[in-house]
Amino acid sequence: MRRFYSTLIILGIVLPGCGGDDSTLPEGPTLADMSRDHEKILLNPVEPQPGMEIAATFGETNSRGGFFFLFQWDGSEWGEPIYLLESDANGRRPSSIRVGEGGDMADYGVEGPGPDRLVLPSDLEPGYWWLCTANARDRACAPLITVGASGR
Q1: Span 94-107, mean pLDDT?
Q2: Residue 112: strand, helix, or coil
Q3: Which of 109, 84, 102, 82 is nearest to 94 (CA)?
Q4: pLDDT value of position 148
Q5: How would you class 22 by CB atoms within 10 Å of its CB: exposed for 0-12, middle for 13-18, buried for 19 or more?
Q6: How far apart are CA 111 and CA 82, in angstroms?
Q7: Is the pLDDT of residue 15 over 60?
Q8: Residues 142, 41: contact at Cβ < 8 Å?
Q9: Higher pLDDT pick, 24 / 114
């Protein structure tokens, strides 16, 4: 069951870490990049295609907003967030936009394990991504590897 609360908006948290083994992708981040101080998000599926809906599950007592950032691995580091995703936590359909293309980040929050439904951008490039809560009391992140529509 979801409980809503008011939350402060925290933007611009850049967190490193994710990994994978795929010879068609550039070298990915190491396991050391994943050992950061944050809660984990469990994603299903963990290797989705662009445009797919994914489920994000959290710890029982997680407090977060309904927004998430996607950061892309460039071969040596995580850059600035590229996409802003809004979950279905407020009763609307999940959505995604490129950071800087407008849109508002509403000040609402969610508590509990979820799952929160997210939709990946349809133009998401195959590769290594880092999904993090964008406006959360309890920062949480997860590695994500996207594959093209025809697979890797």
Answers
A1: 81
A2: coil
A3: 84
A4: 65
A5: middle
A6: 25
A7: no
A8: yes
A9: 114
- Residue 131 near residue 140, CB atoms below 8 Å: no
> CB of 7 within 8 A of CB of 135?
yes
Domains, in order of start, for the chain:
31-146 (2.60.40)
In the block, which residue shows the tokens 């849109």? 103
- Give pLDDT, residue 52: 93
Both tokens of 17, joined, read 């870490």
In the numeric block, which tokens belong to residue 84?
Answer: 């802003």
87 Cβ neighbours under 8 A, 6+ residues apart = 56, 66, 67, 68, 94, 110, 116, 117, 118
Give the C-alpha distances (Å, rounded to integers) separating 53 from 14, 50, 115, 130, 141.
Answer: 23, 9, 12, 16, 17
pLDDT at 37: 54
